[in-house]
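Please predict the structure of the following assembly.
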Amino acid sequence: MSNAPDVLLTTRLRNAQPALWTNAARQAHPPEHMQALGRTISLVDTHAAAHRLERFAGLLAQVFPELSATQGVVESALMPASALLPALGIPADAGKLFIKADHSLPVAGSIKARGGMHEVLEFAEQVALQQGLVSQGGDYRVLAEPAAREVLARYQVAVGSTGNLGLSIGVVASALGFKAAVHMSADAKEWKKERLRLRGVQVVEHTGDYERAVAAGREQAAADPLCHFVDDEQSFSLLLGYSAAALHLQKQLQSQGVVVDAQHPLLVYLPCGVGGAPAGIAFGLRQLLGPHVHCFFAEPVQSPCFMVQMLSDQAPHLGGHPSVYDWGLTNRTEADGLAVPRASLLAAELMKPLLSGVFTVQDATLFEHLVMVLDTLGERIEPSAAAGFSGPAMLTGTTAGQAWLQASGLDAVLHQATHLVWTTGGLLVPDAQYQTFVERGRALLAAKSSAT
Ligand SMILES: *Cc1c(COP(=O)(O)O)cnc(C)c1O
């Protein structure tokens, strides 16, 4: 077979039509130690990230009242959601559906609570040990005391973001006493900036896109030795923080009686921006659960940066690090958490042997699915977080998806499969904003049903 990306797919991609790319380079048994950007990572690093979160749990419960009930643990529910399958157009014999409810993660209200919190804590731990504020194995709650906070206040944490990462980093950094600066791209929502300003975070507004905001943050941080820059495009700390979710999910699957093996595949659909969050989770899941977990990334049709990156890896003559603009796309989408023009090379390199595929979704579909999730499950998600819901139908209802199911042998066991849609944000969206999302979705659904 030729390596050239197929013309049907690239035509759909250019025309901003929903498309599915499947990964011929996926390995059933990838190495335990994996290389990316010259560094080697394994499950040992995922466990280390989880242990770091545990060491800080006591302190987190103290500085975030919303975490006192869980003793400082930031986690989300695994919720049965098969009631949604008919509305999603999935045949009754195509498996069960669950959602991983990161839309309700406390503190940051999105999946960014995982990676963002981990990276800020790693920096805090490094400073605290260096400055003798805590000892190895000691009680980190001393960091909430004025003397320690005075030391941390000399340091700054900076980040560039379309919104949610800034919200996570800004809120956690300022809660620990750091100065915090968030460089926001033009598409960031006003309420996210407002929320940060209320916490004393410096919000720097940029007229450009996500890449410009990141570049500005990186520049500012480079000039200040006491500033730590959270680099969303290449941070191992973020990625490993996300990967720790896999350890918790494994327990949740077990406790809900979900088996993952050759007869019972697990298909996971993850909304993708720069790729760090879904890659971290996919890395953890593949290492932990093995060959029968299949991870698919979901992107807006105007911002499919990960898909164009994977296509360029397949056919390097297309260019090493393409942007969606190179494909004639606009990077304009209501899914603000996913409005990223160019993928993280760390995430892309790591995913080459691990990922099963990438698909794209129209904004209209995001709003329709957002309404179905509200009406059927009573859950509030933001548009970005709806991207995964197109996944099952992409596999069962398209030629490309059916071909992949057949080639991978999944069609024979699909009735025993578990589909898991990762809902990545929503908790903090203000009511008025959320109502506009719902109205838009209802109008689209009504237009559809009157047309048929
Ligand atoms: C950031 C974000 C993602 C994707 O994470 P990346 O690391 O950018 O790929 C998905 N959903 C929401 C709601 C987000 O904010």
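The chain has two domains: 7-43+73-109+246-451, 112-237. Residues 431-451 form the longest helix (21 residues).
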